[in-house]
Model the fold of this input.
Amino acid sequence: MRPFKVHVLGCGSATPTTKHHPSSQVVEMRGKLFLVDCAEGTQVQLRKAHCRFTQISHVFISHLHGDHCLGLIGLISSFGLTGRTAPMHVFADGSFEHLFRQMMAFFCPRLSFTTFFHPVDTTAAQVVYEDNSVSVSTIPLDHRVPCCGYLFKEKPAPPYLNRDLMEYYNVPFSEVDAIKEGKDFITAKGEVIPATRLLVPASKPRSYAYCSDTRYVPTLQHLIKGVDLLYHESTYDSQYQHLANAYYHSTAADAAKTAKDAGAKKLMLGHYSSRYDNEELLKTEAEAIFPNVILAQEGLVVEVGT
Done:
């Protein structure tokens, strides 16, 4: 299988600490790098993670709080200093477009590449990017400002040839396309070899859901059903449920309920409040509801589907 990884660049919440950077991740899939949220310090974290600037062409912003987007203009400016020529695509709530264009005109007036802004409707679940191998869809969330998560999915791949059997039956190259389309192969002796025997099913498509700042949403499970990896904010533990409700955030228990109801394979917690010196209590709280839990940490690289 081709790599499908999540690189955690920052997993803290709004108040900066010496332990955690604010929110940013890189999703690596099918040879592409997608940047999800872009807080202060993201470009430094990209350097530390050895993610090549030139491979990032799409940035997905969940919402317009500073701890998720204040690094964006600086990052684009730095891209300009590298002599980049490939276009850049920014996806964010449509209300940001006017300010974004003003900042681009002021800070990045002479870039060597074109930057495209794609307004996102955070209230609807819809595909905002796709190519022949992957798709990215929005996940409406419930926060104090318009906010959405993003669902990254591989598209089903066609079956591939069983090279050993192809050689055993002396299948000529001219028959390959027909077999891939499901046509049986007939040997020189008249034996019919089913195409299904000569083909190996491709691996099941994998998926990753990034759910940033949000209150607990009982219906969220339906949009991320069966996801291989779920990142869900867990700003607080349950003793601070009143703060989670007041500030439209989630507890670790909330995140675990969502993972359980969605039938997720693995849950990654993040967006920790600065009040925690040790986030293990968040992991313990979540594990009481959903067993397969990991804690996001800067520098962590998670394989999706393992």
User: Anything to note?
Assistant: The longest strand covers residues 4-10. The mean pLDDT is 95.
